[in-house]
Structures
1.
Amino acid sequence: MAVMLFRLSIFLAAITALLEIGVAANSRRQQCTTTLSDAKLVADQLQLHYYNSSTGQYNLGELWTDANTLEDLHNLMLANDSDDYENAADTSYIAKAALDPNTDWTKFLGGSNDDAQWIILALWKIADYKSARGQDSSAYISSAAKIYDMIAREWDDTCGGGVWWSTEHTYKNAITNELFLLTSAAGYLRTKNEAYLENANKEWSWLIASGMRGPNGLFNDGLDLKTCQNNGQTTWTYNQAVVASGLAALYAATGNTSLLDQAEVSLDATIVSLTGNGILRESCDLADETCNHDQQIFKGIWTKHVQYYLDNANDISRVAKYSQFLGVQHSGILLHATNSAHDIGSVWYTADQGRSQWSPEASASGLQAFISAAKYGSC
Ligand SMILES: *[C@@H]1O[C@H](CO)[C@@H](O)[C@H](O)[C@H]1NC(C)=O
Ligand SMILES: *[C@@H]1O[C@H](CO)[C@@H](O)[C@H](O)[C@H]1NC(C)=O
Ligand SMILES: *[C@@H]1O[C@H](CO)[C@@H](O)[C@H](O)[C@H]1NC(C)=O
C-alpha cells in the first residue's frame, strides 16, 4: 500500500511537472490578443493608405523599408494564423523579383549591401509563411541564397575584415555587418551549411574587435576608413537590436550563452540611453530635428529584432527582462502617436507636437512594435 501510494505520488508529481512545462511553454507563445487587434488595425490602414498594388510598392516607400514592411505583414500573419495580407507578397515588386529566376539582382539591389540583406530577411519570412500554409517557398529561398552569396563576396581585409556598406567600397559600417552576422547565423540554422556558420563566427570576431561599439554599450554608425576607428557618428536604435538578433541566432547554432550576454549589453544600453519617458526615442525625434524616411522605421526594427532575439534565446527569464519594456512601447505609441485612422507617426515618446512624420515607414515601425509586444510584451 505504502509502495503504491509512493508510486502514485511520483506519478502525480510527474503529471504536475508536465503540466507546468506545458503552461510555461504556452504562456510564452500566448499572443496578447488586444495588442494583435491593434496591429491588425494598423496593418489594414497601412495597406489602404500607402500600398499601391499596381506597382507593388508603398507610396513614399523605399526598397529596404518596403522589404521590412512586407516582413512585418508576414510576421503578423504567422502570429495569428491569419491570411489577411496573403496577396501582398505576390503583388509586391520584391516578391515578383524573387519569383523570377532571371532577375538581375545586381541591378535590382543597386549596390546596397545593407538593403540586400533586409530583402533576404523579408524573403525568408515570406517563405516561412508560405511553408506554414503548405505552399511552395523554394523560389524565395533560392533568391535569398543568391543575394547572400553576393554579400559574402563583399568581405575583404580593409580594417581587418567586414563587408562593405556598398559595392563602391567607400564605407564599412555597423548595420551592414550586423546584418551579415544575422543572415549568416540564421542562414546556418536554416541550411546547416557550415560556410554560413564560419561567416557568422568570423563576422562576430571582427565586429566586437572593430571598436564600433562604444564604452556606453551602443554601436555607432560605422568606421572612419582612414584610421579604422569608430567614427563616433549617431547611435541609431536599430543598430542595437539587429546585433542582438544575430547573436541569438549564433547562440542557437553554438550553445554559447556568452553571446546572449553580449547581446544584452546593447539592448540594455538602448533602454538606458535611447529613450524618453521609458519609450524609444531616436536622436532625430528630438524637437530640433526631423527623422528622414530611413530613420522613421528604425525603432520598429529595434522591437522586431528584440522579438527575434527572444525567439532564439528561448529563455523565459530573458523574456521576463524585456516584457514590460515591449508592452510600454505599445501603450506609448497608442497614447502619443496613433491617429483615429490608425496611422502611426514617427515620434513615440511624447505627445505629437506637430513633429511626428506620417509615412509608410513610420506606420510600419509602429506596426512591428505592436507585433513584438503582442508576442513578448506584458498585456
Ligand atoms: C486572429 O484570428 C482570429 C480567428 O481567426 C480572428 O478573429 C482575429 O480577427 C484575428 N486577429 C488578427 C489581429 O488578425
Ligand atoms: C500607383 O502607382 C501608379 C504608377 O506610379 C500611379 O499611376 C497610381 O496613381 C498609383 N495609385 C495609387 C492608388 O496611388
Ligand atoms: C563564446 O562567446 C564569447 C563572447 O563572444 C567568446 O568570448 C568566447 O570565446 C566564446 N566561446 C567559445 C567556446 O567559442
2.
Amino acid sequence: MADKILEYLIFELDGLGESTYEVDDPIGDDFSVDVPQELVRDDLPFPDVPEVEVVRHYTRLSQLNFSVDTGFYPLGSCTMKYNPKIHEHVASDARFAMLHPYQPDEDVQGALAVMYHLSELLQEITGMDAISLHPAAGAHGELTGTFIARAYFRQKGETGRHIAIIPDSAHGTNPASAAMAGFDVIEVKSNEKGQVDMDALREIVDKYGDEIAIIMLTNPNTLGVFEENILEIAELIHGVGGLLYYDGANLNGILGMARPGDMGFDIVHLNLHKTFSAPHGGGGPGSGPIGVKEHLKDFLPVPTVVYDEESGMFRLNYDIPHSIGRMRMFHANFLVLLKAYMYIISLGGEGLRQVGRLAVLNANYLAAKVKKYFPIPYGELYKHEFVATGKVLKEQGVKTLDIAKRLIDFGVHPPTIYFPLIVSEALMIEPTETEVKYNLDMYAAALETIYKEAHENPDILHSAPNNAPIGRLDDVKAVKQLKVVYTEEE
Ligand SMILES: *Cc1c(COP(=O)(O)O)cnc(C)c1O
C-alpha cells in the first residue's frame, strides 16, 4: 500500500482497489484466441487499483514533463518554439491521419498536392532546385545528403574524393554522417571570431585538393555567428571540385533574409521540427527534407512527387536515373510535413521574415542581459542564439551543470550545455521568436540570481534541482542502466 501521495509507479498503488472491475470473457467466444496452456499465467502481479486512481496517476505523470507548452525552453540549437495548436487539430483530422501509404495516387491527390507544394515552398525558401521530403530528421538528412555526394562523385568517376571538412564548432551528427557515408573527416578550426579560420581552410584545400569531397557547414553556426566568408569558402571548395553541404538546423536565424542556395551550397537539409514548428523532443517524429542544386537532382531518393500536366494529377515518381534509392519506408513523416506546410502558408513570406527578425532580436536582447554575468566569448551580433560561458564561477566551485540544474528550480528549462565544444563550460541559449519580453527578463534575472548564489551560497547550486519532482540524476547511469521493467524493491 502506498504511503506517499505522489507515486511514480502504478504498482506501488497496489492494494488501493476495492472497486476494480471483473470482466468476464471480454472478447467473447467468437473472437477468443487460444493461448497455449503453458503460456497462460495466473501469477501476474497486476496492481489492484480503482479506476479513479489510475486516471489520477497517469494525469499526474503527464504533468511531470516539462514542455514548450508549460514553460520557457531556450534549449540552444533545438529551436523549441511554440507550435500553433491549429496545426495539431488539422493534422489529427482522420482524412489526413488515416491515410495509408499504399493507397493509389488517385486516392490521395490532396496529400500529394501538400507534398508537392511544400517542396516548391522549401525550394523557394532555401534557394535550391529540387527537394526530397524523405529524411525523418536532420541527422537523417545529413546521411541522405552525404550519400548523394558520394553517388555524385562515383558517377563522375572521381572516387578518390574521400575527405569531408568539418569545423570544430559543428554538431556531432556532421562528422558521424560523413563517416557513415565513407568519408574521412578533417577538422578545420575556428578563428577568434568563432568563424571558419580561412588560413587553416586554405591549408587543407592546398594539401588535399581533389581528394576533397565535401565541406559541411552550419550557417549561422552553432555559436550563433554568421560565417561572413561563406562566398569565399564556396569559391575555394568549388575551385577544387568539392561540394558544400548546409546543415539547416539554424535556419531560423536567417529565415526570409538569406538563402543557403545563394551562398553557394549544393546540398541543404532543413529540420522542419525546428524552424517550421512541429513539436519535437523525445526522439520524434521529425522531418529533415533535403534540397539540392540542379547537378544533384538525379541522385535524390525515390519517390518524389511530380505534377503531370496532361492528366492534371499529382503522382509519385520512381524514375530518377541515378537515385540513391530509398532512405526510409514509405514516403515521409507526412503529418509533420503537413504541419510545416500550414506554418509556412499561414505566415507567408513577410511572416517568415518576421520570424527570423524576432528570433535575432530576442537572442540579442537576452545576450545583452546575460553577458553582464556570463561572458560570451564569440560574436558580437548573434543570430538566433548565443553561447555564454559558466567558467567565471570556477573559483566558487560551481560548474555549468550546477547552473543548468538550478535553473530548473526557477521553473524554466536549462539551456544546452557543454556544446559547442570550443566554448568551455558552454551555456547555449536560444530563446526563439515566440517568447515575450517578460520571459527573457525572467530568465536573465534567474541567471543573475544564480550568479549571486554562487558567491554567497554555492551549496544550493550543487544540490539543485531542489524543488523538482526528481532530484539530480546520474545522467550516464540513467541512460546505461535504463530500467523499463518493474521489479519490487527488496
Ligand atoms: C539538431 C541539429 C542537428 C540534428 O538534427 P536532428 O533533427 O536532431 O537529427 C544537426 N545539426 C545541428 C546544428 C543541430 O542543431
3.
Amino acid sequence: MATRRDFIKITGLGVAGLTVGGAGAYQMLKGASLWDSVTLGDAERVPTYCEVCFWKCAGWTYKNKEGKIMKVVGHEDDPHCDGRLCPRGTGGIGMYYDTDRLTTPLIRVTENGKQSYRKASWDEALGLIVENMKAIAEKYGPESVALFNHGSSGDHFERLFKAFGSGTIAAPSYAQCRGPREAGFKATFGTSIGSPEPTDIRDTRCLVLIGSHIGENMHNGQVQEMSDAIDRGADIITVDPRYSTAASKSKFWLPIKPATDLALLLAWIHVIIEEGGYDKAYVEQHTTGFDRLKHHVRRMTPEWAYGITTIDPETIRQTARLMGSAAPAVIVHPGRHVTWYGDDTQRSRAIAILNALLGSWGRRGGFFLKEKASLPNYPYPAYPTPKWDWKATLRGRYPLADEAVTNALVDASLPGGEGQEQMIHGWIVTGTNLPQSMPEKPRLQKAIDSLDFIAVVDTMPMEITGYADVVLPECTYFERYDDLRAAPHREPNIALRMPAVAPLGESKPAWWMCKQLGERLGLGAFYPYEDYSEVLDWQLKQVGSSLEEMKHLGVKRWPRKSEDLYFKEGEAVTFNTPSGKIELYSSELESAGFDPLPNYTAHPEPPEGFYRLIYGRAPMHTFSRTANNPNLTDLMRENDLWMNPKVAQIWGIENGQKVWLRNQDGAFTSFPIKVRVTERIRWDCVYMVHGFGQKREALSRAFGQGASDSEMITTVMIDPIMGGQGMRGNFVTFSIEEPKQVQSL
Ligand SMILES: Nc1nc2c(c(=O)[nH]1)N[C@H]1C(S)=C(S)[C@@H](COP(=O)(O)OP(=O)(O)OC[C@H]3O[C@@H](n4cnc5c(=O)[nH]c(N)nc54)[C@H](O)[C@@H]3O)O[C@H]1N2
Ligand SMILES: Nc1nc2c(c(=O)[nH]1)N[C@H]1C(S)=C(S)[C@@H](COP(=O)(O)OP(=O)(O)OC[C@H]3O[C@@H](n4cnc5c(=O)[nH]c(N)nc54)[C@H](O)[C@@H]3O)O[C@H]1N2
Ligand code: SF4
Ligand SMILES: [Mo]
C-alpha cells in the first residue's frame, strides 16, 4: 500500500551526496593500531565521554600532529570504566570516520510522483522546521509537537521543547527497556534503580542474573566488577534459556523455559522463607507485609515451579540456599532490558522482594546507596507550563508510569485512536532509531503517516531518517560539547565531553541546532550564549571548578556528602513508600487495582512448528547504532540465529545455512539469517542479536546483513502497570526459500 510518506531508501544520493572523509580517512583509521607503539608524548588528548551506549564511559581522544583523531582510551579516574573502554567504545572512532555519515541537511521532495531527498542549506531546513512547529502550535498548541529522544542530543532538544511549551517527550529506554524494573523497585523500596545500576558487584559473594547477560551486555563497569568478583570467588547463578557468556562463568546455569521466570522467583521466595534463609533482623526492622507474603507463597513450592519452569526442585533449593548463605552480600540483579512478557513490573517486584528478604538493599555486596554531583542549572528563564504533557497521553492507563511512555505517544499520534482525538501532530526525533527500537512497525508507520510533520536528527542515514520530512545531520561526539555527565555512583563525579576536531562537512552539534531553532521561534532569551562551552564553564564555576580545569582533568570526583555507602547496623531508615518501609506487600499497587503480591500467570506458547524468538546483545555492537561502524563490522558483520540441534534436525537445516523467518502474524524478515546450530540454547526458542538486517542502502556495510528481530515483533504484551511493551511473545518458523510475498515493512 502506498503511504503518504514513502520510506526513502536514499540510494543515489546516499552514495553521491552523503559521502565524506573518503577512503583516505578510513585507511588512516585502519592504521590507528600502529599508533599504539608510538609514544603518546607527541599526541594531544582531549576529554570526552563515550556515546556508543548509555553507560557513558569517560575517556581521552588522542590526536596526532596533523590534528587527526587516532584513538580513544578509557579515563583512568572514571568510575564508569576504570580506565578501560569496551570494544564498542574503542571502536567508537568508527562513528567519526564512517564514510556513510550524514553531513548535510536534507529535505523530502516529490518529483514526478516519486519521493526523494535533496540537499538543503541549514537556513532552509531550520526554517521549515520552525514553520511547521509554529503552525502546529497555532492550530493545536505547542504540546502537540512531540519529542522522541535518546542520548546526549536529547537533553538539548528537551530544553528547547520545554521553552517552546511542550512536555510531550519520551525515550524508548523506558517503555521498551528498563521501565518495569523502575516501577517494581520503586513500589518496593521507594527508589527506582536508574543508570548506572547501584549494584555493589565488586564486593558481592553471589550474583544472580535473570535474563541479564552481563559480558555480552557490555556495560563496562559491571562487566569489570563481575570479573573481579569471580576472581575473588563469588558465585554466579544465571537463569537463561541460552548458555550465555555469563552462564559459562556460573556455578549454576538454570536453562529456564522462557516466559516462566516469575514461577522460579516465587519458589525461591518460598524456600527462603520456609527454610528461614532470610535476614530476620532486616526484615523485621525495614519491611512490611512479611506475613502476607509468607501466606501468599506457601504453596509455591519448588515442585510447583518445576512443572512450569522445567528447573528441577533440588536445583531451586540449592540456589536459594546459596543466596541465603551469601546474604546480605548477594545481588539478585534487576536486569535492564526487562520489557518481556507484559507482567514485567510484577516480575521486577518479585526480584525486589527477594533482595529485601536477603537484606541486600543498602548493604555491602548488595546495592550501595548512590550519590550524584549536584550541578546547578544554568539560569534560563522559567519554562512556560504546558496545558498538558506526556501524562495526558496515558489516557488514564499505566498508573505507575514514572517516565513518558513512547507507545502512548504513538497512540496519541493516531487519528481517532481508541475513540479519542489525535493529540499529537508533529514529531522531532533525535538519537533514536524508532523503526528498530519500537515493536509493532505497522502502527508506527500509521502514526508517522498521520503527522503534519516529522524531523529527524541523526549522525547516520539510519532507518528512521527515511521517514523524515527534514533530516538534520548531527556531528559525532568527537566533534562537540554536550552537557556534563553527572551520573550517580559510589562517589559523586562529573565528566566533560569536548570537541577533539571540527565537525565534518556541514554537520553540527545538537546544542547549535537548538539555539538556532530557539531564536527563530522567538525563544532567544533561553539562548544567551554564543557557544555551549559558556554554559559548562558557568556550571563548573558554581562547583569550584572551571572549563579550563576540566579540559585537563576530564573527570572530577568529590567525597560523598551524605550518609555512608551502606546502611549502618540498626540504623533507622525511612523509605519513600506510603508506609515508609520496604513494601513486600505493595499498598501502592493495591490502591491502583493491581496484585499487591506478584502472581505467576501463563503466557501464550508457540503454535506447532514455531519457536519463541528471544534476542539480546553482542559485545561488539550497540543496537543498530553500530551496525555500520567500520571498526565494529570488522569484528562482527551480521547476526546469526541460535538453534538447538534437535530443531535443526527436524527441519533439515545445517549449520551456516541461511533461512528467512516468518512469525505468527505472517510477517517475514526482509533478509535471511545464518543458522548457528548449538546445544547452547533450548529447543523451544531461537535467539538472535538485535540491531541487524538494516534496510537503508545508504548504510554500505550494514545493508542487508543479517536479520532484524524488530520485524518479527508484531505482537506486544503491554504491562498494564507502567505501559512497557513486552516483546518476547512472538514466535517464528523458518523458510528455506526466499519468500515471494515479503510482508515486512
Ligand atoms: N526488537 C528490539 N527492540 C528493542 C530492543 C531489542 O533488544 N530488540 N532493545 C530496547 C532497548 S533496551 C533500548 S534502550 C532501545 C534503544 O533504542 P534506540 O535508542 O533507538 O537505539 P539505537 O539503535 O542506539 O538508536 C540510536 C539512533 O541514534 C543515532 N545516533 C547515534 N549517535 C548519535 C548522536 O550523537 N546524535 C544523534 N542525534 N543521533 C545519534 C543512531 O544513528 C541511531 O539512529 O531499543 C529497545 N528496542
Ligand atoms: N554490547 C552491548 N551491551 C549493551 C547494549 C548493547 O546494545 N550492546 N545495550 C545496553 C542496554 S540499553 C540494555 S537495556 C542492556 C540489556 O541487557 P540485559 O538487560 O542484560 O539483557 P537483554 O538484552 O534483555 O537480555 C537478553 C538475555 O535474556 C535471555 N532471555 C530471553 N528470554 C528469557 C526469559 O524468558 N527468561 C530468562 N531468564 N532469560 C531470557 C536471552 O537469552 C539473553 O541472554 O544491555 C546494555 N548493554
Ligand atoms: S560501555 Fe562501552 S560503548 Fe558503553 S559507554 Fe562504555 S565504552 Fe562506550
Ligand atoms: Mo536499554
4.
Amino acid sequence: MNREIYMDYAATTFVKPEVIEEMKLYFNEYFGNPSSVYGISRSTKMAIIKAREKIASAINANRDEIFFTSGGSESDNWAIKGVALANKERGKHIITTGIEHPAVINTCRYMEKQGFKVTYLPVDRFGTVDIKKLEESIGKDTLIVSIMFANNEIGTIEPIEEIGNICKKRQILLHTDAVQAVGNVPIDVKDMNIDLLSMSSHKFYGPKGIGALYIKKGVKIDSFIHGGSQERGRRAGTENIAGIVGMGKALEIATLNMNRENKRLSYLRDKMIEKLLKIPGTKLNGHKTNRLPSNVNISFDSVDGEILVMALDNEGICVSAGSACSAGAIEPSRVLKAIGLSDVRAKSSIRLSLGAGTTEEDINYAADIIKDTVFKLRENNAKWSSGKF
Ligand SMILES: *Cc1c(COP(=O)(O)O)cnc(C)c1O
C-alpha cells in the first residue's frame, strides 16, 4: 500500500493533540454560557480572556483589540464592509490587490455594487505588490487599503511594514489578510502600523470555524453580526468557547516553535524546489526567498495541473492545483495570471504546502513520485498527439 503524504497545509491543518486536549473540557465540564453569572460560566469567561491574551501577544496587540469570528472569511468581510460602512461619509474608495483571497476580492466586488470604488493593484512577476502604484492610487476619498500579508497560492510575503508606513503617513486604514502568515512568520501590528488583521485557527493547527479580527483601538468600524453584547457589542452570538480555547492554545504553540519550525520547513521547501527543478521543463512560481517557509508552487511544461493532482492522489500524495478555494473552477488561477503567467503555464502548475507532519523522507519520496508521474503524463500526451494510442 502507498504511503499517505499530506502536502496541502495551506488549505488546512490537522488539530494538534495538545489543542484537542485543552478543548475537551469546554464541551461538557465547563459548558456554561459566559454571559451568565454562576460558577461554570466564570470558568468559560476566564478561558476566553486567557485565549484572547495569548492571541493578542502573538501579534503584539492588546487584549481588547482581539475580536473572535467564525474564521478568516468572516474577518475579511467584517474588516472591509465594517470600515467602509462606518466611514462612508469620508469617502468611498477601497484599495486592494489582484492576488487577494476570494474572501477579500469578492467582498470588494460586493462593495463596488454598493457604490464604492475599488482599485486592484498589480503585482510584479514574483507577486510583490507595486508600492509606487499604491502611493499613486491613494486619494482624498480613500478609506482603507487591504493587502494580504502572505499569498496562499505562491507564498509571496508582501512588504506590509512599508505599506503600513505609507498608510499611516496618508492617514488611511490598513487591513491585512494574515491568514497564511499568523503562526508562521513574525508579525508585530504596532511596528508594522497595521489597523486591522484577519486570522484563522485552522491554518495553524487549531480547529476550523474559529478566527479573529484584530481591530486597533480607535478604529471606526460597524458591527457585522448584530445581536447580544458579546465581544464588547461588536460581534454578537454566544461564544464558540472550545474553538476559542483551541485557537489560543494552537497559536501559543505555533509562536513558541516558530523559529525552529521555520528553519526546518525552509530547508525542506528548498530541497523540494531543488529536486523538482531538476525535472526538465519546470519553473518555480513566486519569489525564490521572500516566500512562506512552507510554500512550493511549480509549473510543469506539457502537463495539466488538475490531472497531475489527480494522478498524485492515486499515489497517496495530497497537493492542490491553484488554490483549494478556487478548485473545481476550470479558470486558470487569478494569482498566477497576475504574476504574468500564460493561461497554459498557469494551468500546468501545482502547489505543495509543507507543515508539521512533513519529514525529509516525505520530500524525497514525494519528489520521486512527482517526477515519475510527470514523465508518465508527458509520455501519454505525446502518444495522444502523435496518434499512437
Ligand atoms: C484560508 C484563507 C482564508 C479563509 O479562511 P477561513 O477560516 O477558511 O474562512 C482567507 N484568506 C487566506 C489568505 C486564506 O489562506
